[in-house]
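Continuing the series of single-chain predictions for the mutant panel. This is the parent chain; the variants come on the following pages.
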Amino acid sequence: MRTAEGDARTPLQLNAVPHPARGGAAVQLFADWQTACAHLRDHWLTAPECQAWALVAPAYTSLLDPGDADARYRYAEQARITAGSSAQPLYDLCVAAVALEAGDAARLQWVQDDGRVTAAMGTSGVVLLIEGVVRTAFVAGQGDPQATKDGQRRRLERRGLPRERPLRSGGHGGDPHGPQSRRPWEDKWSAEERLYYRVFRPAVQLVKRAQHRSRDMRGGIVRADYALLKGLLPTRSRLKYEDWLELRRACRPESPSGPPQDPRPAAVTDGTGKN
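Parent structure:
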């Protein structure tokens, strides 16, 4: 395959994660390299969700600064013109993080299959939706719905990441957890406390108030497949920090705070779903 730069390159190599509803089975993370790159762009490289992913997978900051919007845009563009090969390290980090979330979901039974889609959630608040392959894996409660709706229009109007609102001058905006927005006591939080209060708890709140099928202002049907999970999660009164920490450490006794700093996926596919 030739990229816009005219170089022959190997496309991003896809991988699989454990299927949370089918013990021992694996499911490919995204259908093809194009879908994988779009997902990385819209979730791992777009604020504010990129800030949450940096807490879920701390090795993120060894690849790029999640607070630098220009750097994230350049990373997404380079992935596009290299058929995803330049984004292999970020995709591999995504595989490692999602695999752990799938394992959490299987252990805690935070997984539901309605015959069309399988929904699952792990202890970091990452929601997986599976339809043949993992269709999406996102940090619930971190996105901006209006920015998503405006994404297609803004992609045509300006340089930047489609789902991200315009940032202040300097290109280093988009961090809802930056120094100016933090409360004084947050600087004393541990890594686990940051993950719980900034990522997991907002995810639970979103899932708990979601409706599986609703209608928008124009009468169109809106599906929120992650609402399948709302009856499976404990009540919020039973998911306080101490409760969550106990569940987290039961699921990940060797690495309670998240994925390893230097993940190495065990198997790589050729992009067709075959090893």
